[in-house]
Amino acid sequence: MKNMADSTNSADVLARMAAVIESRLPAQGGDPEKSYVARLLRKGPDAFLKKVGEEATEVVMAAKDADHGGDRSKIVGEVADLWFHTLITLAHYGLKPADVITELERREGTSGIEEKALRKALAREGGKA
User: What pLDDT is attached to residue 85?
Assistant: First the structure.
């Protein structure tokens, strides 16, 4: 059973982190000399998107290690790093964690196979227009 307090607190944590990240945006006066986030944002999408890719790879490696007796808690740390860098990506593009949560809620209860088939059908229709 879903614990609503946990999901609310989780959404709150993501929203608070997003607010801090947004405060580091160059337009908000983020100082690259004092903030890792401001430094990544100043460097532009290539810098923070590279970090997203690196962190995603580290999630895969931690999971593979766990499959062979490694510490499963390392997966959590790597996913936290990945989420953090995706929050930077969202902020750069003017998006918020709530936008992702809304999309996940929209997908909830939908078969992944059906959802993928629908996206392909819509893409084909768009391609014919």
Answer: 98
